[in-house]
Specification:
Elements: H1 6-22, E1 33-35, E2 44-46, H2 48-56, H3 60-70, E3 81-83, E4 87-90, H4 94-105, E5 120-124, H5 139-154, E6 158-162, H6 171-189, H7 200-203, H8 207-220, H9 222-236, H10 240-264, H11 283-292, E7 296-299, E8 302-305, E9 320-323, H12 331-345, E10 350-354, H13 360-372, E11 381-385, E12 390-391, H14 408-426, H15 431-451, E13 459-460, H16 463-466, H17 474-491, H18 506-516, H19 518-527, H20 531-551, H21 560-584
Parallel strand pairs: 5-6, 5-10, 10-11, 12-13
Antiparallel strand pairs: 1-2, 2-4, 3-4, 7-8, 8-9
Helix pairs in contact: 1-3, 2-3, 4-18, 4-21, 6-8, 6-9, 6-10, 8-9, 12-13, 14-15, 17-20, 17-21, 18-20, 18-21, 19-20, 20-21
The chain binds one RNA strand of 77 nucleotides through helix 2, strand 9, helix 12, helix 13 and strand 13.
Amino acid sequence: MLRGDLANELARRIADAAKEAFSLDITLQQAVIRPSTPDRGADYQSNAAFGLAKKIGISPRETATRITEHFHTGDMLDPPEVSGAGFVNLTLQDTWLAHHIEALATDKRLGTPEVPTPQRIIVDYSGPNVAKEMHVGHLRSTIIGDSLTRLLRFQGHEVVPQNHLGDWGTPFGMLIEHLSEKARETSKGETGNSTPTHSTQSNIADLNVFYQEARQKFDADPEFADRARTRVLALQSGDQKTQSLWKDLVAESERHFQEVYDLLHVDLTPENARGESFYNQYLPGIVAELEEKNLAVMSEGAVCVFPDGFTNGDNTPVPLIIRKSDGGYTYDTTDLGALRFRAQKLAASQIFYVVGTPQRLHFKMVFATAQQAGWLTENMRAEHIGFGSVLGEDGKILRTRAGGSVKLMDLLREAIDRATVILAERSELNAQERQDVAHAVGIGAVKYADLCNDREKDYVFSWKRMLAMEGNTAVYLQYANARIKSVVRKSNSKVPADTSIVFAHPAERNLAIKLSRFPAAIEATTTGREPHKLCNYLYETATAFSGFYENCPVLHPENEELRASRLMLCALTSNIIEKGLDLLGIEAPARL
RNA sequence: GCUCCCGUAGCUCAGCAGGAUAGAGCAACCGCCUCCUAAGCGGUAGGUCGCAGGUUCGAUUCCUGCCGGGGGCGCCA
């Protein structure tokens, strides 16, 4: 078997042995294959005997022994050994492992199988607000969503990213009114001969300042507030002048978003953007359909859905308000509209929402409602991929010293600046080359620090740790890869395809085992939508490489066979690290 | 009040379809550059896995309760 998790093959053999020994059919799960705990002299172990022993009525140890007696090693494994209370230790044969590595070295997919039935999957991520600068609150959604998109595509799925922009709602009345006034002031101040250029760009140099100005006016000036409210109505009723100003606002914001995405190397474009406003056209229909299906009812003047299974302890049902008593719609309605659109018009079979965990209840209720309405089915699933908050070193939500939200642009620039300083201290590259590398290192550090923690938990943002010269960081991986690249460069030779892998030192075999587990890492990462598992795998692999690098001279070994073998290990390791980093959305410079 | 999540080394985190002596990285201490990038490697020290019960041959992992922290809960999105 070239592609797939080796553990599956081992599980099959354990299952076969169990069948022969006890005439029992067990699943691959029940074979309980795990990578063996280190320093126990085995590559994998099966813990199947413990579960089986009870059914059969003999001791786990005896069960394990019977399994080993019927186990077919083929040329893949050494004879299995029983150990402890009933563990079956499995060790790959060196020659088999060597041939396997040789095959992986020439496999484009590095042993990773494509999914048998590709699906169209919507991934909803990033979702910044128009007329506001992107801030750390958007960081995780953007980074995790991007990585998931890459992972799913690598598996062979068709991914349709959707950037659900916050481009609608009552604040837009005040923003548009403010924009309108600023435009008037500017044109008054300009001299007659100046070309009446499209003025919005200069008017909104800083989106946050712009928003704050509008808010201040709204709070301080009742007449302005009135005009703002009128604007909301004008916007909703499609007033042309108002619509045009709104579009300017959206366009200007999208330019800003694009800058951030470019800096992050996140492949989101305006084509992926469908703002909340897009779904306005469907909202009355959503309410009507839910009423028709007897899912929506009037309650305290509002139209509500009370999906099954959501009560507030005292058995009062929890509502999804889909039309307010004033006739307006809420994000409950919009999310239902977006979901129906994605399921029906975009014909997705899965919809992933990469949104923070505080929204968990909301999505549960939206999905439950969509199920009752028939928009979601067995073959049309939605999944909330929640994530925790970014905390400051004080353990509270990350903020600036002034207490404001941290602008994403500032944060990313600082990451690059800090990387630049570090490179200046120790890089072998010239100033010109260092620029690109500083970008890769700085942005990589931010992304990796985010992705390497359990997605659902909060994590503490620390420059010191993420840009640390040592430890489990993006730089460590990038550095390991750069060293490999350097060796390969200096070898001045291509690795011949007919190279034989030989294990002369334990570090080589140790590395080989890690390399063979790339498919398992991808599998675990995608099924759980947990990028940190890929991070952990890459870190372990890079560590294994460091051990190899310390102990195994590549360019000047004892003989030519070793040189070729080691170069092949180098090349494969580099390919895996680069592919892994790529799936995390992180660049791997050839030199540091 | 109801509800969800979290609590593992001094710090930051893995591990948790129950399984062998609980792993990393920082920080501390001790070593290793006439040799492929020392942003590296090896070693020492550091843990009642919040507390108490329960299920089990076996629990950091599953269940219950408690303590501590955070989030969410009808007209913001």
